[in-house]
Amino acid sequence: MKALRLRTIAWLLFSLVVLNVVGAGLYGALRVLPAVREVRVATTSLQRLYGRLAEDDRWIGASHTAATRAVTAGDAAAVARLRESLANRDRLVSELPLADVPQPVRVPIARAEDLASRLVVTFDEIAALLELGRREDAVQRLGVADSLRDRFDRVLADTQARGLDNLLQRENGLQDVSRQMYLMFGAWLAVTLALASIVLVLIKKRVTGPMGALHTGLEQVQGGQLSVTLPLPASDEIGELIHHFNQMTAVLRDRAERQGRVAAVGELLAGVAHEVNNPLMAIAALAETRLAEPGLPEVERTDLESIVGQAHRAGQLLQGIIRLIRPAAGEPRAVDLNEVVRDTWDLIGFQFKADGVQGRLELVSGRLPVIAVPQKLEQAFVNLLGNAHQAVMRQQPPRKIVVRTLVEDERATALVCDNGPGVPEGVCDQLFRPFFSTLPDGRAGLGLYTSRLIARELGGEVAYRPTTEPGATFAVSLPLAPADALAPVRVERPSGQRRALEGLSILV
């Protein structure tokens, strides 16, 4: 069974957290908000209602006082004040919010409203009786008004008590809901922490163990142990990473074996080149000694000069091989890019001739000063020319390789061009990756990668340049050094005659 990928687990965990937060919020909102809304609506309604009842109470008190004075005094002015108080009653009449009032409060509210209406009628009767001069009847109606007012006060007090009791009950209910919410959140939090702990343990099991093994494997590879192979865990991102690690170590083992063989062959070749160089120099010295003899026939002189030239050429070739295999350590210095290109061409140009490759140098006139380590820069050109040679050998004749030097944007540039099959479009982005090769013979695939590293160490670059012509072009660009950074060229003055070696002493 295929295991869940870590990305999927992370999304599931994130979704669980989001659902947990949203669920808790919705639950709290659905439980608490209705209770809070009921309390708010009931409180607002009771406040409006009690405000209306307080105004009624104040009006009843003022009207009762006016009625008492009118009955006691019995004059028209007192009756007028009672009529004025009755007229003010109309401004107090408004619709009571009984629909939003709690049920226990509605009955006393209705009774209070009925008593207030009866008081209005009683006060109006008192005013009318006084206006008719029936003072005894007005006194009797005043007694009825006193009784109604006492009952109104008791009903008002009962209404306020019931309203407060209802609000307390609602507040207690809200506290119960809050208590339940706290308990629910506690249980919810406990379950969430338990689930999160389980998920973290699973993730730790899936990540910590394989990552620890991978870290140990990397340390072993760093220590030089390339035979490390890690067991594959679940088929997730960590498993893919370990799979790539195993592939990398396999490639490194294969490359190390090949590089070891190449290094051994290189050391053997350097030793052979050194040993061959000694007899070549001896042959050249003997030929030069013979050339110094007077009266040497012209035919022999021509043959000896050819021997000396070929011996020196072979010696230079052997020295170039030794220089490539055993590069001398040195600091970057000012060198002529044209000279480095010529030395590289002299080193491997013979192979072009042997394979029927038409090679040509097109060097800019003058000198191109750059700051570089000559041996390293020569190695970069050997890699590029070697790749060009391999490319053209896969083509039918004519096979051509051209090296051009020029100045572009204040940079010295060397172009290595060939008429081979070119670079496929799908692999252009992978050309400079280490161990990448399009050849089926299992070559190392480090030439372009190494050449770019050498150029970048010198502040330059190696890049592939697409062209409309068949083949491939690679450009090596380096910053130009000051023109006076190069040592002046030493011109050997030709001598009119060869100097004899007689009388010279040589200490070996």
Structure description:
- It is a single chain.
- β4 (399-408) and β5 (411-418) form a beta hairpin.
- The chain is α+β, with helices and mostly antiparallel strands.
- The strands form two sheets. Strands 2-4-5-7-6 form a five-stranded mixed sheet. It has a two-stranded antiparallel ribbon with strand order 1-3.
- It has nine helices and seven strands.
- α1 (6-73) packs antiparallel against α2 (76-92), α5 (237-291) packs antiparallel against α6 (298-325) and α8 (374-392) runs antiparallel to α9.
SSE ordering: HHHHHHEHEEHEEHEE
Number of DSSP-assigned strands: 7
Over all CA atoms, what is the radius of gyration? 55 Å
Low-confidence stretches: 493-498
- Oligomer class: single chain
Q: In this structure, how is the largest beta sheet organized? A: 5 strands, mixed
Count of alpha/pi helices: 9
**Overall SS class:** alpha+beta
How much helicity do the residues have? 55-70%
**What would you call the shape?**
rod-shaped
Major beta sheet, strand line-up: 2-4-5-7-6
Mean pLDDT: 76
Distance between the termini: 79 Å
Strand percent estimate:
5-15%
